[in-house]
Amino acid sequence: MAISVIFTSFFKALGQIGDKRFRKVFWLGIMLTFALLIAAYAGLLGFLQWIGARDILAGVVGDASWLGDVINLTSFFFMLFMSVFLMVPVASAITSMFLDEVAQAVEDRHYPHLPEAMNVPFAEAVRDTISFLGLLIVANLLALILYVLMPPLAPLIFWGLNGFLLGREYYTLAAMRRVGRENAKVLRRKHAATIWAAGILMAVPLSIPLINLLVPILGAATFTHIYHRLDGQKSARYAPSSSF
C-alpha cells in the first residue's frame, strides 16, 4: 500500500483548494443540491396532498383547521432531518458531474506536459451521477442497521464503507479520462488497497459539518494525483480504445 503516495497527493490537492475552478464546482454543486432538496420537499407536500393526508387525519382526530399547518410543519422538519443524512451524498453525487473540471485543473497545474484528456460525455456523467447517488444512499441506509447493532464500531463502519465507495468513484473518474472506463477498472483492481485507504482519508471529514462539503473536490483532486503517481507514467500500456 502506497501510504506516502496517498498523503503526498492529499496535501497537493489541499494546496490547490483555492483554485477558481475548484470554487466554481463547489458552489455549483451546493446550489444544485439545495435546489434538489427544495424540489424534494415540494414533491413530498404534493404527494401528501395527492393522497389526501389532511382528510385521513381529520377522519381520525376530527375536523380541525390546523391540520394543514401541522402537516406542512411536520413535513418541513422531516425534510430538514433527512437533509442532515442526504446533504453529503447528494452533494457528492451532483458534484461528481463536474469533477472532470477539477481533474483538469490539477493536471494543468501539476502535469502540464500531458496531452488532452478524453472528454466524458455529459449523458454518461449524468448516468454515473445517478448510479453513484443511488449506491451511496442505499449503502448508508443499510449501514444504519449495523450502527444500531454495533454502536461502538459505527464510526469505523461509516469510514470503511464510504471510503470504499468514494475511492472507487474518484479513482475511476481520474483514470478513465486517460485510459477509458474498462482500463480504469483494471487499474482500480490493481491498486484496490491503496484506493480504499485513500478513500477512508476522504471519508473521515464526512463527519465534520461544512468541511464535508469539500470532500468531492478534494477527493477528485487527490485521486487525480494518485492515478498519475501510481500509473501515469505507465498508462500508455493501456489502450484507450474502450473509453466510455
What does this structure look like?
With 244 residues, the protein is an all-alpha fold. The chain has a domain at 3-15 and 84-237. 77% of the residues lie in helices and 0% in strands. The protein contains 10 helices and no strands. The chain is globular.
Tell me the overall shape.
Answer: globular
Distance between the termini: 28 Å
The total count of strands amounts to 0
The chain-level structural class is mainly alpha
| Beta content | under 5%
Q: Could you spell the SSE succession in H and E letters?
A: HHHHHHHHHH
Count of helical stretches: 10
Low-pLDDT parts are none
Rg computed from alpha carbons, rounded to a whole number of angstroms: 21 Å
Helix percentage: over 70%
* Average of pLDDT: 78
Please give the largest β-sheet.
none
At a glance:
With 244 residues, this protein is mainly alpha-helical. It has 10 helices and no strands.
Question: What key phrases describe this protein's structure?
Answer:
10 helices, 244 residues, single chain, mainly alpha
